[in-house]
Amino acid sequence: MNNQDTAIGVEGLTKLFGQITAVDHISFKVKRGEFFGFLGPNGAGKTTTIRMLTGIIKKDSGEASIMGYPAGSVRAKQLSGVMPELSNAYLDLTAWGNLMLMAELYRIPANQAKERAGSLLQNLGLFERKDSKASTYSMGMRKRLVLSMALIPDPQILFLDEPTSGLDVQSVRFMRALLRNLKKEGKTIFLTTHNMDEAAEMCERVAIINRGKIVALDCPDNLSISAGRVYLIDVSFDKAVSQETLANLPGVNRLETAQAIETSDMLRAQQAMAGAGRPGGMGGNQGRMQAQMAGGLSAGAAGTGAGKTPGADTGGEEKTDYRFRFYTDNTTLLVTTLVDFSRANSLQISILNVRPPSLEDAFVRLTEEAKR
Amino acid sequence: MTNSFGVIDQIIRSWAIVKKDMRIYYSKGPVVLMGIMYPAFMFIAFAFGRDMPVASLMPGLISMSVFFTCSAIAPITFPWETQARTLERLVSAPVAVWTILLGDMLASMLTGIFITIVPIIIAIAVGSTIVNALVLAGAIILGAICFATLSLLISSPPTSAPQYSQMISSFVKFPLIFISGIFVPLSEMPAFARSITFISPLTYFTDLARYSMGGGNYFPVGIDFMVLAAFTVAAWIIAVKLHNRTLPKRI
After folding, report:
1. Are residues A178 and A201 in the same domain?
2. What is the reported pLDDT for A313?
C-alpha cells in the first residue's frame, strides 16, 4: 500500500496513562475507502486509539497520520468525522442547532450546510424533530444525531466508536444499512465494536487489539479460519452416553460436555457482549448463543451428569438433556458417524447444530491466548 | 469549504463557539438577571449609607457589573462541557484549544458589555454625567476582554465539577472587589492599602470609569489602558498554556 492509498497510517503508536500502557506500539494502515474494524475486549485500547487518531488525546510516542496529515492536526480533523460511543451532542440545542454548530466549526458554507443538514436529518429519520432539543431525544435518536453531526462535514474518514451499542434491533439494522451506504460512497470507515457479527458482516479487514497490542490483523474470513478450521457440532441425545465412547468416534478432534459448553459459551458471551447494556450487540450467533445459554443454565445441573457412563448416579435428578459439543475438521464424517452411533445405541438426537468457525471464535482464542 | 488553516481561519471558527455559548449559557433569563442584580445588590450592600453622593458611586457599580458579568460563566463552561462530553466534541473538530478559549472569552466579553448598558442607564438616570464616552467605551471593551480572559485562568484546573470552579472563582473575585478602589477612591486610601490595589486589574478599570464619569482618576488614562492590556495579554498566554496542559486530563 503506498502512501497515496493510505487513509490512516499508524506506526508504533503508544499511549501511557501513568504506569499503564494503554496502547503499546501498534502499527497498521487503513486503505482509502476501506471499512476497517478495530476489535478488542473492554480496556484493550480501542477508544484510546480512536482518541489519538482524532486528536482528542495526545500520543506519547509513534506516528499516526490521516490522509497524509499528522493525526490531531487541524487539517486531519477537517477530513474526519467522529462518532463517539457516548452521545456528545449539545442537549440544550436542537438537532438543527447541533448540526449548524458543527457546520460552522468545519467552515461549511451556510447554504451547503443547510442542504446537507436537511438531507441528513431526513435520511436518519430526525427531520420531524429537528427543532426539538436533543435532551428530549431517545438514546437511538441521539446516536443518529451524533452520526449526522459526524457526517455534516462530508468527511473522507469516519471514526465510529461502538455505533450500534445500546440500540434496539431496528435501529441497529438502520445504522448498518446506513454504514453500508457510506462505504458505497467511498468513505473510509474505522469502526470499533464488540459485536463480532457486525464486524464480520461489515468490515473488509479487522484488527484485534488486546492489552494495548494488536494480536491479529486480517480479513474476517481469514481470521475465522485462523481459529483452527475447526467446525463446532452441538448434539443433544435423549439418554446419557459415555463421554469416552463419543471422544473416540472417528472425526472427533475434541469433545466438550454440557458443563464445558456453558463455560465456553459464557466466555464468548462476556467477550462478545462485553458487559451488560449492549442490546444492540445481540445478533446472529450471539442471539443463538444466548438462547443456548438460557436453556443451558436450566439444564445445567442435569447436564453435568452427561458424559458419564449410562446409569451413573444423577443425584436423584431426572436428566432431560445430554448435550455435547464436538470440534471437528470433517463435518461429513462426524455427522454420519453420530447418526450411525445413535441408531446402533437406540438414541434420539434432539439437537444437531453445525456451526462454521466464526470471527468470534478467533477473537476469543486470540484474546484468551494473549492472557496466558 | 475553506482550504486555509491559519489564525484568521481559527478566529472565524471561534465565532461558532461564541454563538453556541450565547445560545446555551448566556441567553438564559436567570443568567442575564443575575448579571444585573448581583453586582447591583453587592453595590447597595457595601456603598449605600456612606457619605458619598450617589452619582460619584456609579463608576464603582459599572466596574462591578463588567467584572462580574464577564467572569461569571466562563470559569464553569469548561467543567460543564467536560461533564457533558461536549468538550470532546469540540476538541475533535478542526479547532485549536486557543480557538475554543477565544470563543468562550468573546462570548463572556460580549455578554458583559451588553449587560453593562443597564448600570450605565441607571448612572445617567441618577444624575451621573459621562464626560468622556470614548474612554468609557474603550475601558468597558478592554476591561471586558481582560476580565473574561482572567476567568479562563480560573477554568483551567482539570475538573468536571462546575462547583469546584465556582469556588475558585469566588475565592479570587471577592477579594479583588475590596482591593480595587471601588468603594474607596485610591487617592483616599492609606499608602499600604493603595500598594495592594496595584496588583488588581479591576483597579485600573475603575480608575478609567471614574475618569470618564468626571471623577478623579489616580493614574494617567494611558497607563490604565496599558496595564489592562498587559494583564489581558499575560492572562491569555498563561490561560492557553494551562489549558493545553490540562485538557488531556479532562477527556
Report:
1. yes
2. 39
> A253-288 pLDDT, tens per residue?
888 887 766 666 666 655 544 433 333 333 334 333
Show residues of chain B in contact with A101, CB under 8 Å: 16, 19-20
Kindly report, residue by residue over B175-198, the tens digit of the pLDDT.
888 888 887 777 788 888 888 889
- Widest Cα–Cα separation across chain B: 62
B contacts of A106 (beta carbons < 8 Å): 1, 93-94
Q: Kindly state whether residue A365 falls inside one of the protein's structural domains.
A: no
Q: What ipTM was reported for this prediction?
A: 0.87
DSSP symbol at A91: T
A123 touches chain B (CB under 8 A): no
Predicted local confidence at residue B125, as pLDDT: 84
Subunit contact B86:A56, Cβ cutoff 8 A: no
Both A70 and A124 in a single domain? yes
Q: What is the mean pLDDT of chain A?
A: 82
Residue A250 and residue A129 in one domain: no
Shortest Cα–Cα distance, B9 to chain A (Å): 9
Give the DSSP letter of residue A94. Answer: B
Same domain, A24 and A55: yes
Identify which has the larger pLDDT, B38 or A127.
A127
| Distance of alpha carbon A215 from alpha carbon B32, whole angstroms | 56
How far apart CA A233 and CA A326 sit, in angstroms, is 5
Total of domains in chain A: 2
Q: Among all residues of chain A, which has the CA nearest to that of B84?
A: A88
Structure confidence at residue B74 (pLDDT) = 83
> Which residue in B has a C-alpha nearest to residue A109's C-alpha?
B1
The alpha carbon of residue A351 is apart from the nearest alpha carbon of chain B, in Å, by 49
B23 touches chain A (CB under 8 A): yes
- Shortest distance between the Cα of A54 and any Cα of chain B, in A, equals 6
Burial annotation A139-162 (CB, 10 A radius, 16+ → b, else e): ebbbbbbbbbbbbbbebbbbbbbb
User: Where do the DSSP E strands lie in A18-57?
Assistant: 20-31, 35-39
Q: Which domain holds residue A62?
A: 3-224
| A304 confidence band (pLDDT: 50, 70, 90) | very low
Chain segment B127-166, per-residue pLDDT in tens: 888 889 999 999 999 999 999 999 999 888 888 788 888 8
> Do A27 and A91 have their domain in common?
yes
Same domain, A164 and A270: no
Task: Look up the CATH number of the domain holding residue A105.
Answer: 3.40.50.300
Domain boundary among the residues A170, A194, A224 is at A224
Instruction: Enumerate the residues of chain B whose CB falls inside 8 A of the CB of residue A84.
Output: 85, 88-89, 92
Answer yes or no: do A66 and A198 share one domain.
Answer: yes
A337 near B CB under 8 A: no
User: What's the farthest any 2 CA atoms get from each other in chain A?
Assistant: 80
Same domain (yes/no): A69, A11: yes
